[in-house]
């Protein structure tokens, strides 16, 4: 009886190990597919742009959005007519993720831009007051 139990548990352990190795292999294949995807560079760029906004170090949004638009148009999977009509789930995911990151960046920039504009207006008003009240 004990031999059967040991044999069964051994087989179960082997199955679990095989399943675990298979999952690890699938994860590695997925990682390689993502990192070699045509939109991966744009994805990293979009992610870094979000981090820049969080740190307060962001460029003019109008210019950055134009750069992002050009990059997305250049790398977009739908702009190439030689590709199949249907795109893979990874293609759709990468495009959606890039667009979502861009929308997130824009949403984070809005209050910062507005604050910057208000501060510029206050600075200009204070500058005008100082210049108009100073003797010639």
Short description:
By secondary structure, the chain is mainly α. 81% of the residues lie in helices and 0% in strands. It has helices at 2-35, 40-55, 61-75, 89-133.
Topology:
Elements: H1 2-35, H2 40-55, H3 61-75, H4 89-133
User: Helix proportion of residues, in percent?
Assistant: over 70%
Distance between the termini: 108 Å
Estimated structural class = mainly alpha
Parts with pLDDT < 50 across at least 5 consecutive residues: 77-86
What string gives the helices and strands in order? HHHH
Rounded mean pLDDT is: 78
Shape: rod-shaped
Number of helical runs? 4
Question: In what range is the share of β-strand residues?
Answer: under 5%
Characterize the main sheet: none
Polypeptide structure, described:
By secondary structure, the protein is mainly α. It is rod-shaped, with a radius of gyration of 27 Å. The chain has helices spanning 2-35, 40-55, 61-75, 89-133. Residues 77-86 have low confidence and may be disordered.
Which descriptors apply to this entry?
rod-shaped, 4 helices, mainly alpha, 136 residues
